[in-house]
Amino acid sequence: MAETTTDPVGHILLGDWEIKDYAPREAEAAELSAGGDGWIPAPAPGDTYLALHVAGRIPHPFAEQNEFLCAWVKDREWWWRTQFFAMKPGPGERVILTFEGLDTYASIWLNGSLLGKTDNMFTAFSFDAGPLLHDDQPNLLLIRFTPPALPVADKSMETWEIIADPIKESKRNYHRKAQFGWGWDWGPQLPSVGIWRPVRLERQRIAVIHDVRFSTIAIDPAARIDVAITIDAFATDSDSREPLLAMLQLIDPDGVFAGGTTLTFDGTSRSATWQPIIDTPSLWWTPELGLPSLYTLRVELAQGEQRLDQRTLKVGIRCIELDTSADPDEPGCDFFRFILNGVPIFARGVNWIPASSLVGATTASDHQALLADALAANINMIRVWGGGLYEADAFYDACDRLGLLVWQDFMFACAPYPEHEPAFVESVQREVDHQITRLRNHPSLALWCGNNEGQAVHQFIARMSGSNAPYPGDLFFQRTIPQALKTLDPSTPYWPGSPYGGPSHNSMRAGDVHNWTVWHGLPPVPDELPVGDFSHGPEAVAYTRYAEDKARFVSEFGIQASPAESTLARWLAPDQMSLGSDGFLNRIKDHPRDKVNAMLIPVTGLPDTLGQYVVFTQLVQAEGLKFGIEHYRRRKPHCSGTLIWQYNDCWPGISWSLIDFDRVRKASWFYVARAYAPVLGSFKTLDDGVIELWMTNDTRERVEFAATLTMKNFDGNTLWEEVVTASVPGTESRVVWRGEAARMAADPARVLVVRSNRFADNRLFFAPVKDLPFSPDEPEMQVQIADDHSLAVTLTGVGYHHFVHLSARQPTTVFSDNYFDLQAGETRTIRVALPGATLEPADITRGSFHR
Ligand code: BMA
């Protein structure tokens, strides 16, 4: 018998389950209800593959090439069962069984009777379980998950062949199921199955709070708030004629009462609103603009003395707008920028993919740790990408607390969708209503976006074939979703797709852009090809081509890099730790597998060993993102955001991520943290031999600074120096200094360095790093034990060291800084910490880049 646990409001969580597999249609619910053996334990929420692994039936699906050994799982029928005690509902009561997420084609039996069927992993399903409950014996809940291939066997609309072949056969576009599970260009083909979100049993009496909506109407500067409460009064208590009352309380971030009211539901009224005015609100801000202040909203539903239901929400007072007005300084172009509480912001963001292919296995602490790391990298926006998941509540709660804005895609990606199938349309409608209602109160929610790359890829394919057929999916992105938002969340902006807008989707003149010129070699604007070479050669995909990008908002751009060597070693056998091994090559899901070579050749040259591959790919990714981000941020406000593809990984693969699956930060994480600092100093080289220093200020305050510009050779001798003082107003980006390269004695054998009291050091090389005379020796290193969990590592330059990095054995080791340059004679002390474990000097090694 499963032990029962309760959630914070006292509902019973059904978390202990068992699973068993059959050939499709082999087993019957009736016979399984009688018991039988061969069941293995499976926690819920959880994942079928992991349960099988723990039970010793399969090796870990992420290790070696076990992905292929696990391919049978998706073709089996999976049965999940649990038993629990519950009382039958008394007078005026009902018992509701809610499944927050079933993945995906489930039939549910309670005590042998069919309770219902589900077909959408993105929608919650609730059933009135009361009539089927047994008072006097355990209740048996049984779920059959049908293999996803069966319900779509007769469907014919094909997906596009743009990511990989296997997904075409999956007919993934017919499933309301995470699209990436069928394999993506950064993830394995391991479609998940099972109970991936909590299952709850709720005993309800007379009436419950059906919904609470909190929105900020205006801030001028007092805040006008709208709180809408809907109740579900399903039974009337015959003994009581008293009305139902909702008591509301708003508590400010310091815990002080900020307002309250009691709403009365008489007769047939089921909804009511409260519109308080908060005179001096503590607003919710992104980190560079202020604090992400959160209020607490408590709602209690009662009848007379009887408390019936309650909800507690963390809410934020803020207004978010998407400004797409004409840009007066770039005629013919429109802005695409977010305005938070009246302040135009630059979105320093990333794209988020699911934190594991085994979707039910991700925990709240996984989300919290990854998002805290995003904040530490000066990120202020996360795009939840459409090929993945609507994330768990813990994800959005963390974004609210940390001040991270969320760009939320609806879960559609890179495919036409069957808008002609009534059942599919109905399922999408339910999903959209459910997710909007679930997520709309989060102050972090900045944008709803229809899908990933649907309209743009359709337009591209249609133009190539001379067709002007509409995009199959428009029904959802032009009608279903915007109409639902109009009623359910009119105050959050909506954008129909990404990329979308302008004379063609992916235009630099309006809307958002995915820049895949760099890396994939794709043209940025399909309808008006700019002059240039769009191919896969080193010059065509070089990261310096970001400088040509005049987009308004770049919602995807990125470069692949290997995870840490230690991460690969945890998932591959020693004999697979080489560049040509099958195990290593299967970690690369983008094709051709040597695509990265075109990026490496001009910068680092090609690697001979796996160790070099790790360093070279991480270096090119880091330098490339730095180059791109600095360019885009200098263009502020004409460009008002960059979302790096991609932040995280769903397995230990080779991808565009900044942080690998084992949570080791790649070099790019540290480079991005510097390039995304709210106050940034960066160099721009012009064609006429002029070098500019720019200062980008994302804060609201004017920043005054002094900086020293130094031209040095790599031995450390200074050849030229100048001190600059300037100031830049809040939220602006400006050139603050300009000089002739010749006057500064610029030369490939030298480096231009800027050091300032207000922003991080920056530097400019005049030749590719493979040609620069970096020190062949590593810096001197001294390690001091600070305490059991941390070390102070002091590094001193014996020449010019580029890409200096410390590595640790344990993946969760945290470095206060990493992957930086060190000049001759310069000293830096790095704090290295391993929370919860002992760290020894021998755990740390150092390295740098030199050829
Ligand atoms: C875009 C994304 C993803 C993909 C990435 C890298 O297409 O939306 O689909 O993984 O580029 O190719």
TrEMBL record:
InterPro entries on file: Beta-gal/glucu_dom_sf, Beta-mannosidase-like_N2, Beta-mannosidase_GH2, Beta-mannosidase_Ig, Galactose-bd-like_sf, GH, Ig-like_fold, Ig-like_GH2
Record-level GO BP terms: carbohydrate metabolic process; glycoprotein catabolic process
Residues of the Mannosidase Ig/CBM-like domain: 690-771
Molecular-function annotations in GO: beta-mannosidase activity
Keywords, comma-separated and alphabetical: Glycoprotein, Glycosidase, Hydrolase, Secreted
EC number: 3.2.1.25
Family membership noted in the UniProt record: Belongs to the glycosyl hydrolase 2 family. Beta-mannosidase B subfamily.
Assembly mode: Homodimer.
Protein name: Beta-mannosidase B
Organism this protein belongs to: Caballeronia sordidicola
